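Intended use. Records like the one below are meant for learning the mapping from a protein sequence to its folded structure. Do not use them to infer anything beyond what is encoded.
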Amino acid sequence: MDTIKAVLTGDLIQSRKLTNDDMEKVLNALHDTFNEIQEKILQKEAYFEIYRGDSFQVLINEPQLALKVTLILKSRLLSLFGPSKVKTNARIAIGIGTIRMQNSKIIESHGEAFELSGFELDKMIKESTSISIKTPWDAVNEELKINCLFADNTINNWSPITAESIFRYLLYGETQEKQAQYFKVSQPAISKRLFNQGNMKAVDAFLKRFEYIIENHK
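Structure written out for the chain above:
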């Protein structure tokens, strides 16, 4: 039986509005964040590659973690600049499926997961959405499409400071008390940031549901 994997295909939104220095900061943040994800979240080796200057792909051997990786990357991007600068975000399409061939370069590899991810990203550009998931299973796709629409609306409303709290919560598993010390604010302020402004209760529910679905289909 072929092994199910996940491919994330992403492109930066409004990247042409970034200065060269800001673009360098964004690309460095993507690299550094992926390295931390590999160290703290993933048990198996994963692969990350930037191409065309403002697009990237990630190959994950633990497909049930693909959504968490996506949300960590998106929250990190959204946290980079304050409200006076261009809001940094990325469209990310998650493709779940088999891999027929894997070369040393991700973008030269092939397989179902790559095809589904690439096809979905093309649709997202036309539909102005920033997160989408495509699997080989029709019933699953219908459920995840609805969940992604709600998630997209939530994520697009994250402020930079809310996004940074969510990033630290998802990647480091930081408690509210730990974040309160880090940001030098009260614990209730962190709770409001995560659960009122960030809608983290719904995000956590989506993450758990996604992991359950993929674990039971792979």
